[in-house]
From TrEMBL:
Biological source species: Candidatus Curtissbacteria bacterium RIFCSPHIGHO2_02_FULL_40_16b
Keyword Chaperone: no
Protein name (database record): Macrolide ABC transporter ATP-binding protein
Origin superkingdom: Bacteria
Keywords of this entry: ATP-binding, Nucleotide-binding, Transport
GO cellular component assignments: membrane protein complex
InterPro entries linked to this entry: AAA+_ATPase, ABC_transporter-like_ATP-bd, ABC_transporter-like_CS, MacB-like_ATP-bd, P-loop_NTPase
Classification lineage: Bacteria, Candidatus Curtissiibacteriota
Family, similarity comment: Belongs to the ABC transporter superfamily.
């Protein structure tokens, strides 16, 4: 399978000596299409910083990063924003949905930015929300939904542009354990359908849903294991 993520010797440094923080410290990594990878590590180990670089939300201080073979480390902020909209779906711990806005409108937003017309926006968004069991919640606003439901809306939004890769940063960090299990099963199902998923977590049980587990500590890869 083709590589989606190719990172070579990437580092992200904050501050200056003697207070220099190497949030990501010389990481090289390849992730192929169709993989389901968990990046696990304790708080402060560099997981979010690494995800921000791999997700084109931030640029490395050093090193080369390619998304689907295209070097992205040197692109402008506008070009990165365009790549994110077209190629990447994000799911965050605190959902990052628009408040006082319906589930349907939240999911349609990336399509609006991509210039898709209203009729197609509606039909595609309804289809994805239905697949996630939210057909009765289309018009509910974020505050009317449970945490688990809000996260399902966020997953629908992440899926709507058929992204090459989905990043989820602590997606179960803010929901109850029953809903967490549901969310992880959704990621597993999406991966079986062919979606490439990169999951960031500090929780071993959550990481166990993935097929490959990368452990990071102090900004470095400590272990990289594919499950049998
Ligand atoms: N914008 C920033 N400025 C300075 N230090 C930062 C910044 N972002 C993260 N760090 C530091 O980098 C390290 C890794 O942080 P982070 O990637 O958020 O870890 P994790 O997501 O694993 O908890 C931590 O020591 C953190 O304090
Ligand atoms: Mg984090």
């Amino acid at each position: 399978m083709a590589a989606i993520i190719t990172a070579k010797n990437i580092s992200k440094l904050y501050g200056e000596e003697p207070n220099l923080v190497k949030a990501v410290d010389d990481i090289s990594l390849e992730i192929k299409k169709g993989e389901f990878v968990a990046i696990i590590g304790s708080s402060g180990s560099g997981k979010s910083t690494l995800m921000h670089i791999l997700g084109c939300l931030d640029k490395p201080t050093r090193g080369q990063y390619k998304l689907e073979g295209r070097p992205v480390s040197q692109l402008s902020d506008n070009e990165l924003a365009d790549i994110r909209n077209k190629k990447i779906g994000f799911v965050f711990q605190f959902f990052n949905l628009l408040p006082r806005t319906s589930a349907l409108k939240n999911v349609e937003l990336p399509l609006l930015y991509a210039g898709v017309n209203k009729k197609e926006r509606d039909s595609r968004s309804m289809k994805v929300l239905k697949e996630l069991g939210l057909e009765k919640r289309l018009n509910s606003t974020s505050s009317q939904l449970s945490g688990g439901e809000q996260q399902r809306v966020a997953i629908a939004r992440a899926l709507i542009n058929n992204p090459s890769v989905i990043f989820a940063d602590e997606p179960t960090g803010n929901i109850d354990s029953k809903s967490s299990l549901e969310i992880m099963k959704i990621f597993q199902r999406l991966n079986k359908k062919g979606n490439t998923i990169i999951l960031i977590t500090h929780d071993k049980e959550v990481a166990d849903f993935a097929k490959r587990i990368i452990t990071i500590k102090d900004g470095k890869i400590l272990a990289d294991k594919i499950k049998k």
